[in-house]
Structure formats: structure tokens, C-alpha cells
């Protein structure tokens, strides 16, 4: 499928793309919509390459697949489910059918219930045994944690509700650290789990219940649940009035727009939460209507495919120069890697090309003082994705924001331009001479010609965050659709879960490790010797 693109890449691979980057290219190889500008001009994609990439979208039927997703068709074929997280932000409530049934009345009714509850918690009308709620603990993992945790941090300037804490890890250190900060009599615990069976979440939920029961008579009254499994929430003792359900056509890692976003809604208030939904919906409309060349999710996906499947760059660094987005890389790791980390195509055949890339990153400028060394001078090329706001929320520290912006732009410039040997020599000429000058200069060479893209926006408001998250969701969709994989299942997490369940009695010493491989048995023995 990628032959022509690979041949094109081979013919331009040695070109220094810096030589192409002028004003015209900057305009031609950027796309703008709403509050976003995506600049992909600092890459080796040229007009012919882009045409071939766009051609891929047509050859793989991405438009039809996109329309099928929005129309509620069961595009998650291995689980026989529709993929309709977009319905959760369909605020005007235009009809969306699943199996002939309009799902919007229920979606909007649940949103309104969430809003009523969030308002009660925020106003103090909803009380714990000790009075108004001061702390909310969201217990969930993966998609039931990363989205709201990322967004609560991202929208900290809008946070005017009770304190929000997130517990995900089954490691007791996680929940113990949070419980120590909270008063059980004024704490609301939200158990967030699509399935309500996830062992980490259920274990932490029971720990929170036991903690609260030491000082609160009716613990159930201070618990809420977010789940598709309402029977299981009842069995846990949570009253239906505080259970916010959603349908199985909302994937875990796509679920923050609905009930899984309750902690975010309590933190920033229903109006700001609606603004977040509006941002997501605006990106949906753009994705559905814009021609491919101007279509941000499509172009972001094509740049990803160019770097990963065509150039063979196996990883992608997400580098938000926006400290509020500190959790975005972790959030995107699940969104992108759980969605597109698949080894077979939709029909079960082994994938004849690489699946989605490794996604990683940290906020700038912190990363500059940690791993950028490798990005600039290491032997592997790592495409970088920068995010930058024109304005921060810290108006009194405007000069710091300008410094941040300068750093962000300088990094993409440095990656592109590099520094050749002559320039490196001139940098050290005053200090060294002869062979030593040559040796010292070589250490200061930057090859450059390293690609990056920049996503710029005016300010990280709820609406802009909604646009950013929906942009990445649709990017994942487009990459998956081109690769012909199912982006909406996650069978790859099952084996580890099954083996952990089987190993638990071995670790506890109730079963011996005889059936285990030598390495696992020896590690169990070592940990048991030291008190596990
Ligand atoms: O194990 C992976 C996974 O199923 C994710 O896809 C999901 O987001 C996470 O676990 C949590 O699942 P749940 O919301 O059902 O507890």
C-alpha cells in the first residue's frame, strides 16, 4: 500500500527540508481551524508527498469510514459495537441512531443529571456527614482516570469547585497518599469504571469504603459511580440516584466527554464543562466537513503516517510547552497506543507494516534539560510535536510566557537547522586548535534536518482543550482507518490481566510456583524471601 510513498521518500530522504521552508511553504503546509494552527512545514513532506498521502485517504475509504462512525454503525467489529463518543458532545442533540434508536435523549438527560449533581456538590447542598464536600476522589484507571486527571490539571485556572484527587494504581501507596489528605466526613468518592470489574479500581474502591466507614455511618451516601454496568454499581451499595451510566459504544479511552468527566465537571462547573464539549463538537464538525488538505485531524494523521510507516521513525514525542498539559503525553499514550497498537488488520491478517508509534513526552522546557540531548544528537530521528499557547493564564508573569514561547520555537528551529561542522569549529576556535579543535567541534555538531510539527492556539480554555482532545481522537481514527486496524478494541491488555489473577495465589503463598517458568518462579521466591 505504501510503495509509491516509500519510493517518493527514498528520492527526497537526503534533502535538507530547511531549504524549502519559506513564507509560502509556511502558509501552504499549515492548516487552521477554529482556534488551532497546525504547522507541519518543518517536515520533509513536499507537495508531491502530500498528494500521495491524501491519496491514501481516498484509497482506504477514510471518508466512508468516518461517516459510518458518526452514523453509529458498528465499526468496532471485534466487539460488535458502534463508536459514538461524539454523541456525548452533540450538544444540540441532532439525532444519532444506534440499532435504529435515537440515543440523544438519554445522552442529554444524563448530562443534565450530572449537571444537577455537580451543582449540588459545588454549592454545598449535597453534604457529607461532616458538611459540604471539600474533596472529591476519582477512583478509576486507564480511560476512567487519564482523561479527567489530565483535564482537571489542564483547566486548573477554571477550578473553583472542591479539591479533586485521582487514584488509579493498585499500589496502595497511591490511595494511601490521597486518603491522608482528605477528611472522610467531607469527601465524595467517585468510582469510575466502565465495566465495574477492573481489579485495581474495585480494590481501591473497597479500600476507600473501609477508610470512610471508620468515621461515616452511611458510606454509600458519599459514593457515586460512573459505569455502563449499573447492576454492579447497585451491588456495591451505590444508590441509583448517584449512578451515572453510559452505553458500551463509548470506549474507555474516549469517555471523558460523558459521565467519566464528572470529576472535571465538579471541578470547573457545568458551564465550563459545556464549553469543553462545544470545543470537541466544533472539531467534529470540522473533521466531517473540511477538505482533506485543510482538515486538521486528517493532516495530523498523515504526518504521523509519513513519519512512522514511511520514514520508519518508531516513536513520536509530544512536547507541550504548556505546563497545564503536563498529563497530555500520558493521556495520549493510552489514546494512541491502546487504539493503534495492533498486530492484525480488521480481517485478522498479520499487519504487513508497522502499527501505531510509541508515544511519549514531557512538558517543555523540562524535557530540554532531560532527554532533548538524544532528540538533537542521538542516532535515531524522533519526530517532535510541540504545543504552544499564545497566552498563558498567568498575566503577571507574561515575560515568563514569552520566554516559554521563544524556547518552543527555538527547539523546532534547532531541530530543523542543526549546526554544521564549520559553525561548530567557529564556536570553539578561540579555545582549541589543531586536532583538539577538530575533536571538540565534532561533539558540537547537530545534524539537523529533524522534523517537528507545532500546534498553536490562543490560550488553553475549556473550549480549546475540547478542540485539542477531539483533534487527537480523530487523528487516531484516521491513522487506524488507513492502516485498516480496529482502533476501538484492546485485546492486548487481557493476557497480563489473566496471568496476574492466576499469579495472585502464588504470590500469597497459597499455591506453589511449580507450573511457572523458571524466571517467574525465582522472582516470586526472592520477593517472598523479602516479605511480599
Ligand atoms: O485494561 C484496559 C482497560 O480496559 C482500558 O481500555 C480502560 O480504559 C481501563 O482498562 C479501565 O477500564 P474500566 O473503565 O472498565 O475500569
From TrEMBL:
Pfam families in the cross-refs: PGI
Pathway, per record: Carbohydrate degradation; glycolysis; D-glyceraldehyde 3-phosphate and glycerone phosphate from D-glucose: step 2/4; Carbohydrate biosynthesis; gluconeogenesis
Top-rank EC class of the record's enzyme: isomerase
Catalytic residues (UniProt): 338, 369, 497
UniProtKB keywords: Cytoplasm, Gluconeogenesis, Glycolysis, Isomerase
InterPro entries in the cross-refs: G6P_Isomerase, G6P_Isomerase_C, Phosphoglucose_isomerase_CS, SIS_dom_sf, SIS_PGI_1, SIS_PGI_2
Superkingdom: Bacteria
Stated family: Belongs to the GPI family.
Protein's UniProt name: Glucose-6-phosphate isomerase
Amino acid at each position: 500500500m505504501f510503495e509509491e510513498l516509500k519510493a517518493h521518500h527514498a528520492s527526497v530522504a537526503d534533502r535538507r527540508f530547511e531549504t524549502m521552508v519559506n513564507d509560502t511553504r509556511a502558509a501552504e503546509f499549515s492548516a487552521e481551524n477554529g482556534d488551532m494552527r497546525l504547522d507541519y512545514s518543518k517536515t520533509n513532506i513536499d507537495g508531491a508527498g502530500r498528494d500521495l498521502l491524501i491519496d491514501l485517504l481516498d484509497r482506504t475509504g477514510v471518508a466512508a469510514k468516518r461517516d459510518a462512525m458518526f452514523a453509529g454503525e458498528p465499526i468496532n467489529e471485534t466487539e460488535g459495537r458502534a463508536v459514538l463518543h461524539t454523541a456525548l458532545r452533540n450538544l444540540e442533540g441532532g439525532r444519532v441512531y444506534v440499532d435504529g434508536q435515537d440515543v440523544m435523549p438519554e445522552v442529554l438527560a444524563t448530562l443534565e443529571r450530572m449537571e444537577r449533581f455537580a451543582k449540588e456538590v459545588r454549592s454545598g447542598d449535597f453534604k457529607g456527614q461532616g458538611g459540604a464536600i471539600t474533596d472529591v476522589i476519582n477512583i478509576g484507571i486507564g480511560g476512567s482516570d487519564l482523561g479527567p486527571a489530565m483535564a482537571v490539571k489542564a483547566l486548573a485556572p477554571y477550578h473553583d469547585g472542591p479539591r479533586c484527587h485521582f487514584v488509579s494504581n493498585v499500589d496502595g501507596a497511591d490511595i494511601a497518599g490521597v486518603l491522608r489528605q482528605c477528611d472522610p466526613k467531607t469527601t465524595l468518592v467517585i468510582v469510575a469504571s466502565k465495566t465495574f470489574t477492573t481489579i485495581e479500581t474495585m480494590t481501591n474502591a473497597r479500600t476507600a469504603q473501609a477508610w470512610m466507614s471508620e468515621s461515616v455511618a452511611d458510606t454509600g451516601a458519599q459514593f457515586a459511580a460512573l459505569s455502563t454496568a449499573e447492576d454492579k454499581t447497585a451491588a456495591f451499595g451505590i444508590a441509583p440516584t448517584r449512578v451515572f451510566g453510559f452505553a458500551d459504544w463509548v470506549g474507555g479511552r474516549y469517555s471523558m466527554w460523558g459521565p467519566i468527566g464528572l470529576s472535571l465537571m465538579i471541578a470547573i462547573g457545568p458551564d465550563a464543562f459545556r464549553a469543553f464539549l462545544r470545543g470537541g463538537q466544533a472539531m467534529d464538525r470540522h473533521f466531517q466537513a473540511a477538505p482533506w488538505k485543510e482538515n486538521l485531524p486528517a493532516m495530523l494523521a498523515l504526518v504521523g503516517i509519513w513519519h512512522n510507516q514511511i520514514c520508519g521513525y518508531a516513536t513520536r514525542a509530544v512536547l507541550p510547552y504548556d505546563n497545564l498539559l503536563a498529563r497530555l503525553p500520558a493521556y495520549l499514550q493510552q489514546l494512541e497506543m491502546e487504539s493503534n497498537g495492533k498486530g492484525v488488520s480488521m480481517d485478522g491478517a498479520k499487519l504487513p507494516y508497522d502499527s501505531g508509534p510509541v508515544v511519549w513526552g514531557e512538558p517543555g522546557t523540562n524535557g530540554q534539560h532531560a532527554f532533548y540531548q538524544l532528540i538533537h544528537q542521538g542516532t535515531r530521528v524522533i519526530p517532535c510535536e510541540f504545543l504552544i499557547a499564545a497566552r498563558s493564564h498567568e498575566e503577571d508573569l507574561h515575560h515568563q510566557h514569552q520566554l516559554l514561547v521563544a524556547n518552543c520555537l527555538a527547539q523546532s528551529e534547532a531541530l530543523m537547522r542543526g549546526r554544521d561542522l564549520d559553525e561548530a569549529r567557529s564556536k570553539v576556535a578561540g579555545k582549541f586548535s589543531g586536532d583538539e579543535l577538530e575533536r571538540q567541534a565534532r561533539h558540537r555538531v547537530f545534524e539537523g534536518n529533524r522534523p517537528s510539527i507545532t500546534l498553536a492556539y490562543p490560550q488553553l480554555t475549556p473550549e480549546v482543550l475540547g478542540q485539542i482532545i477531539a483533534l487527537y481522537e480523530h487523528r487516531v481514527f484516521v491513522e487506524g482507518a488507513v492502516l485498516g486496524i480496529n482502533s476501538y478494541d484492546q485485546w492486548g491488555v487481557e493476557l497480563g490481566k489473566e496471568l496476574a489473577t492466576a499469579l495472585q495465589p502464588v504470590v500469597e503463598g497459597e499455591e506453589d510456583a511449580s507450573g511457572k517458568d523458571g524466571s517467574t518462579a525465582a522472582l516470586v521466591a526472592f520477593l517472598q524471601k523479602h516479605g511480599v
